Structure formats: C-alpha cells, structure tokens
Prior knowledge:
Mean pLDDT of chain C: 83
Strand order of the largest sheet of chain A: 1-2
Strand order of the largest sheet of chain C: 1-2
Order of helices and strands of chain C: HHEEHHHHHHHHHHHHHHHHHHHHH
Shape of chain A: globular
Strand content of chain A: under 5%
Helix content of chain A: over 70%
Structural class of chain A: mainly alpha
Shape of chain C: globular
Number of strands of chain C: 2
Mean pLDDT of chain A: 86
Order of helices and strands of chain A: HHEEHHHHHHHHHHHHHHHHHHHH
Low-confidence stretches of chain C: none
Number of strands of chain A: 2
Largest sheet of chain C: 2 strands, antiparallel
Number of domains of chain C: 1
Distance between the termini of chain A: 13 Å
Oligomer: heterotrimer
Radius of gyration of chain A: 21 Å
Number of domains of chain A: 1
Amino acid sequence: MNSSLLAIEFLVVVLGLGILLADLWIPSGARRGLAYAAATGLLLVLTLHGGALAPGDDTAFGGMFLVDALANYFKTLFIVATIAVLLISSGYADRLDGYGEYVALTLFALAGMLLAASANDFILMFVALELVTVTFYVLVSFQRRRQSSLEAGVKYLIFGALAAAFMVYGIALIFGSANTTNFYEIASRQAELGKSPVFVIGLLLTLVGLGFKISAFPFQMWTPDVYQGAPVPTTAFLATGSKAAGFVLLLRLAYSVVPEVMARWSHLLLGFAMATMLYGSFAALAQRSVKRLMGYSSIANAGYLLLGIGATNVTGSTAILYFLSGYVFTTLAAFAVISRVTVQDDNDDISVFAGLGNRSPLLAAAMTLALVSLAGIPPLAGFFGKFYLFKAALLQVPTSPLFLVAVLIACVSVVLSLYYYFNIIRVMYWPAQDAVDRPVTVPMAVGISLAACLAGILVVGIFPSGVIGLAHEAVAGLGTPAPEMHVQAHHAAAH
Amino acid sequence: MIVGLHHYLVVSALLFSLGLFGVLARRNLLVIYMSLELMLNAANLALVAFSRYNANLKGQVMVFFIITVAAAEVAVGLALIVALYRRRGTAHVEDLNSLRL
Amino acid sequence: MLAFPLYLCFASALGLLLWRRTASRLPHWITLATCGLGLLLTVTAVIQRTPGAEVVTLVRLPWIPTWGAEFHLAADGLSASLLVLTGIASVGGVLFSWNVQDRPGEFFSLYLTLIGAVYGVFLSWDLLLFFVFYELAIIPKYLLIARWGSTRRDYAAMKLALYSFLGSAAVLVGIVALYATSGLNTLDLSALARHSFPPSTQAWAFPVLFAGFAILAGLWPLHTWAPTGHVAAPTAASMLLAGVIMKLGAYGCLRIALPLLPEGARESRFVFGVLAVAGIVWGALVALRQRDFKFVIGYSSVSHMGFVILGLAMATPLALSGAVLQMISHGIIAGLLFAVVGRMVYDRTHTRDLEELGAHRLGKTLPFAAVTFVLAGFASMGVPGFSGFIAELQILLGTWPVSGRLVAVAGFGILLGAAYVLRAVHLGFFRGDDSPPLEALAPPAPITVPEVLGSGLLLVSTVGLGLFPGFVLDWIQPALAGPFFDGLRRVMVP
C-alpha cells in the first residue's frame, strides 16, 4: 500500500482538526486568526504539493485512489481556491457565528474535493462527493439566524440528497453489470459494457448526480436559491471548488473511463450544454440580487464547459482545464468584491453597488475587471477560455453540424450575458440619485486575496501559454477517446 | 417459486420509484427526507443483491459506506430541518419562499 | 515607427487613469500631444517609405506558442492609409473635446484606449491579436457613451455594446473556424490567406464572418445601434464612432473575410450587395425625415457606410479601392459633421431640434459653423472636388459589371443624400428668416481656437483628398494588387 500518496489530503484533514481544537482556546475576538492560520497552512501544503508533483502516476488502496497529472492539476486549483475563500471569509467573520467551525468545515470540504480529484473508483467518488456535499449543507446554512440562509441550506439538502440517491442507484447498477467499481477495470471493458442496458442506465443516473453538482440544466433548480441564500464566502466556494469537483469527475468519466459511450452521447451532451447556456443567460437577465445573478451566470458557464465535454477531443479537455482556471480566479475576485459590498447591510440587491466607483474606486475597478473577464472580453482569462472551448467544438463540426449550432448558441448566450454584467458596471459608475454614499472598507486579508485573483485573471489571460502547457500535460494521460484507440489499455495492464 | 436476482432488483426499483415519487409529491420536509432515505436504501438492496449473486463482496462494502454517509447526512439534515422549524414554525416546502427574484 | 502610436496611446491612457485631479487642462494637453505625436509618427513613417503591396512586419514576437498565436504587427498600403485616418480623426476628436470638464482624466484615458485599440486592429497581422484589439475597442466606447453621453445614453450605450458584441461573437466563430479547420495551427494572416479552405467551409464561414464584421460597419438591417449610439455619444466619441470605429468592421471584411474566403465571398456577394444598397437608400430616406440634427448625421453615416459595404461585397478591384477611399473620406467628413453639430451647435444652443434651431439664426450668429457645415455637407453629398465623389464613383463603376440594378438604386441613394444635406443646411442654419424671431435668445459663445484648428485640420484633409486622391490611391491600389489578395482576385476576376 502506497498511502504516502495521500499526504496532501491527510495534512488538510489534520489542519482542519487542529483548527477545531484551537477554536476552543482562542478568544472569540481573535477567531479571524484561525482563517489566516488555515490559509498559511494551505499555502504550505501547496508548496509541498508542488514539490511532490514530481512522482509519476501511482495508485493506492487497491487502485481506488489515483495520483496523476490531472488529479494534481485540480488539487492545485482546489487549494488555491480554498485559500482565497478563507481569506474572503475572514472579512465576513462577524456575520458567521462560530467562525472557527466555518474554517474547519471549509478545510474538510477541501479534503473531499482533493479526494474527488484522485478518485479512481465509483465508491471513492461517491464518498468524496458526499464529504463535499454534507459539509456544504452546513456551510450554506451557517448564518442560522438568517432565514434565507437556513432555507438555502434545506433546499441544498433536499437536492443534494436527491442527487446522491440517483448517483448511488446508478453506481449499484454499474456494479451489478460490471461486477466492479474500479475505473480502470471498467475502462478496459467499456466496449462490452457499453452494450449492456443496465450499465448504460447506471451511467446515466451517475451523470445525473454529477449534473446536480455542476448545475447543468435540468438539474440546476437549486443553484439560484442556494447561491442567493448562502453566506458570500460559501457561495464563492460553491461556484468554484464544488463545481470544479464535479467537472474533474465528469472529465475522468468522459475522457478516461467510458469515452466510447460518451462519444456516442455527444449529441445528448450538446443538447444539455445548449439548454444550460440559454437557461442561465436568459434567467439572469431579470435578476436584481447579485448573488442570484452569479448563480445563473454559473449555470451559463457550466454550459460552456459542457461544450468541452461534448467535444470529446484533447482540445476539449485541455480547454476545460484552462477555462476552469480562469473561471476560478475571476469568480473569486467577483465574490471578494461582493463580500465587501454586501457585508454591511447583509443585502445583495444590485442597488448596494450604486456609486461604488466613487465609494471605492479600486473595488469597482476590480469588479469591472472580473465582470469583463466573465463576459469573455479579451485579453482576459474568460475570453481565451471561451476561444479554446469554441475551437474544441468547431473541430468536431465535420462529424456533426450540431457542434456549429451549439457554438452559435453559445455566442448568443455570451451576448446576453454582457447585458447583465454591464448592468452591474453601469450601476457602479452611474448611480441613481438616492444612492448611499458610504465608503467600503477592505481588510488586508481580503485585499490580498483580491489582488492575487486579479493577478490570476491577467496572467491566465494575457500569458495563457503557461497554464495551457500545464493543462495539456494534465490531460495527456487521459488519452483520446477516439473509438479505434483502446484507452488506458496500458493502465489496465499495469494494474 | 425461486427468488432470483431479478426479484430483488424489481423490489429495489420499486422502492426507488416510491421514494422519488415521495420526494416530488409530498410537501412535508420530514416526509421528503424519509423518501430520500428510501431511495438510498433501494440502492443498498440492489447492491446487496448484486453482491450475493455475483459473489463479489465489494457490494457489501459499498453498502456500509452508503449507510455511514446516509447517517451523516441525516444528522446534518435533521438538524437543519429542526433549525428551520424553530425559526419558521413550519416544515412545509411551500413556506420556503424567502428566496425569490 | 508605425507601431509607436499604439504603445504611446496605451501608455498615456494608463498614465491618465492614475491622474486623479479634475478640472485641469493637463489631460487635454497630454492627449493632444499623444494623438498629435501619433499622427506625426504615422505620417513620417509613410512618407519615408511609401507603403504599397509589400507587407512590412514591424514586430513579431511569440505569444501563445501552443496555439500558434504571435504578437505580430505589420502594415501594407491599406493599413497605412487607415492609420493616417486614425491619426487625423484622433487629433480632431481631442480638439473638439477641449471643453470636457467632467473627470477629464478618465474621459481621455478611455479615449486613448479606444484610439490605441483602433491602431492595434489596423496593425495586427495575427487573427487572435486582431480580435483582442477589436473587442478592446468596445469597452471604452460603452463607458464613454454611458458616462459622458446625452440623449438616452444608457439605452444607446447598452444597445451599441450588445450589437457590437453580437457582431464580434459571429466574428469569433468565424475566426475560430478558420483556425480550427485550416489544420495549420497558425493564426498568421499571410499563411491563412495562402491556404485555400474547402468550399463547404467557405460557404458558411464567409457569411458569418462578413456579417459579423459588417454589423460594426452599419449593415442594414442591423444598423440601428449606429444612429442611437452616435446621437447619445459625447462629440469626440461620435466623431470616432462614425469616423473610425465603423471602419474597423469594414477593415475586418477587407482584411480577413474577403482574402481568406474568396469563394464564399463570390457565392454571397449579391445578398450582401442588396443589403448594402438597402442600407444606402434606407439610411438616406430616414435621414430626410429626422428632426434631431444629430440623427440626420447618424443616418447619413449608415447610408455612406452602405457604399463601403457595397464595394466590399462586390470585391472587384475598382470597387474595393473605392470602398477604402470611401472609408477614409467618410471617416473625415463624418467626424467634421458631428463636430459641427455636437460641439459647435449643441454645446452652445442646447438643442438639436431642427425646428427650434431656426430661431437661433445660426447662419448669422455662428458663420464659422455654418461655412464648415456647408463645406462638409458638400463633401458628403459627393460634389466633385471632394473625396466622397471619387470614392462613390469608383464603387459604382466597380459594381456595374456585377449588377446594373444595384448601381441604379445606389445612384438614387446619392440623390437622396444631396436632399437630406440641403434640408439640414437649410433648417439648421439658414431658416431664420421665416421662423418666429426670439429676441430673448442670447447670442452663442464665440467659436474657440481648438474648434477652428480642428475644423481646419479636417477640412484641409477632405479637400486635399478630393483634389489629390492619387496620393492615397497610390497606397491602396498596389496593396489590393499585391500577393495577399491573390486568391480573391483569382476568384473575382473571370
């Protein structure tokens, strides 16, 4: 057994337990320190992770747990996102009773995401996702005294449990038809398994479960409510970490475990992608709550990412990784600003942004940059991500003209999204007459995370080569899902 | 009559459908939650049946994982529902209406 | 040296953004110096080395090696002539916004970003870089209108931004399709122009790409953003919008859609020709019935850009040369017309209603504005001796071999053009005698020096271009006959 592969996960859990214990000793006024400590700890873990990146692919726990380039890429992403979320939450600590537990739970959710990135077995996949989801039930409803937070928590609970039930039933059927739950073993027999209806139904049910996690249409109903009701740092974490965790598993399933079945379903995936994009963009048009708007925007972005899954080519998988990296920075920057602007009144109506250009020019500029990147305007990260995803989809046009339709629909969705992003920019710089004129404070920690995220947007955007190179290496092990290539044959042999 | 794998699977599918119907049709949060548990247990039944008829113990192991996870979920979920009940004095989904446009 | 204005604009824009003090003239001077230096450098560069067919690479650095994207700036005669236009229009724009008092630092920072993006578009020789600059121009445009604009500025700014993005979304699809289907993994324009794309790709990619670009050039029936945007924009922004930004779309058609996808261009030339002619006549007819002075000019831009699109759609050498000349000529004239209406008239009288303006007897009180407008109006009507005449003549002559009917309808559009200009001149400046006298009206403030300088620059340019068109045609025609357009010429000339 090669349990040293789990060092990162182990360290994160220990860090979480340490925070829980320290919480008992620290006076309530100094609880912010716990977030700083956790962030510093994670930074340390990140450095170790960077140093430990060198060892190649290996598995532990009887092939259940896998470390490969893809897992490492996503783990870096998760840790970076968590650090930013912790720093954002430190500025929000006054609104979160029992803040020490909030920090610890954030770390436990991170542990779940890290495990999900390394899952090589349906059992581990389920357990890891549940670790994330159950933790999020609490994180979403953490403002117990606020009714909307509780309601959001209960909605997330019902939909999350429903998704889990679908996924478990799907896994049961997969286990029944394949007599295994290991990804490698299933991958090596996918041609034969793809013909079994029980297996196919099981796979579909599992995908439904993942669809809830990434908020793809028609499993997106929870997203706007939960995004709106949850405390801002939780919403930021949901939009980045939780979504990325869904995508790493989707990516592994689509590109590595059952690529042949997925290639057959590319039209189905494209259909979901188109519906998701259009739903997200159209529904966002009328929103007044900024958090809710970000929820719909997150749905639309899931749609763009699904284009990459549907394309089932190397460009598509690379594009997903690149897009997600830019998306994480952009979304976190936006939520960092939202957390500061909404913290005073605990109100996230778009009107609280009125006149931000005067009240805090730097925050307004940061928000503008983030929104412009989300809108996909060059030369920022959001644009190159969409460019890459469109390229992946257009490469498939010779196989089916539906890809062209999907890209055109994505364009419509992008143009619609400009309307609501620009609307926020407009409100920030051209307030109505009765706008409040209160300055917005930015604690140092939030400022640091905001600055880091903005730097991320710019670097991922203007110099995309580096990230693209990393993403390319990360997906190299996934193999091409073209029918004539029997992917993972060498892995199966190694196993 | 010999009880075979198919009988177990049919029962499990029925349980799953009943649970899903309960989630969609019922309006009381606790009943919805019980229906969700029913769906999870339908999966457990299917796993145990597969495990027995495929002579593969992995399915039984999976069931333990699911029971544990479900227990954690119930603990958190019930706490949430109770907190909501205390605050609102109701456990009906129609009353969850503070989050709107 | 041609690439310097690009860097200069972005550097000054950044500097001005950090400039916090308001109500100072320093931003004005910095912007004037930047734009003036940009014009000077451009003109010096083209005089030193007469541009023509040869594509001169200015900078070429690797940018995203995995995608084959480069930071590649290059210019030929077409780019050079449009760069000069940008220089002239930008200097004129600053001179006519000398009275901006509201946050001048930010105003001019956005203004310079816009100019820089325009320089970037005209200089890019890499598809991705081109698109980056092309989109970069939209944000300052939106902010300038939404913050410093007038009539229904929120609506106009949002409409303009959404139309622009609709166009660039189509352009993006087209560009990515070219990039993905060529299989060359390059975004270099020359390399892609040498590649011949399969007819099936051309058949759908060309209309997508051409229509996407042409939305920004005011393609009927997607032109409605242009009049509302021009009207709401502050003077300098409407000068640039009509003068240069609409040309970005036309330049995209000319530089990317036509030479890369010539067969697609031939297939759909008639469709776009009809749309272009519809735009010419529609724009002129609507301009004829407007009460708002700025709307008259706004719709006249749609009509004149219709000629550019017609020339591009026909894609015969003569029509293309006319289209480029029309781009330059309209760029200067439209700037001048907007300057007179927006700065000289509206800022003094605070009305643009042609019915009310009569009472101001502007022909007597503002003779300079009246004379400038009449001259610009003549140029716009296509009176011989001004640049518009030669350009429209070339376009019509170039269209003739393709379709005589299009020429006839477009010619009718020229007549209508004369009508709306004369109507605007009459109602706006010389109607005082038959309108009720309003004694209470204070005489307007005198014309300032920057206005005189700006009008002088633009007037000299348009008259000069009209008298010596050969000067610019000598850059344009060799470029159109150059190797870059080989594929297009092969397909278009039977």
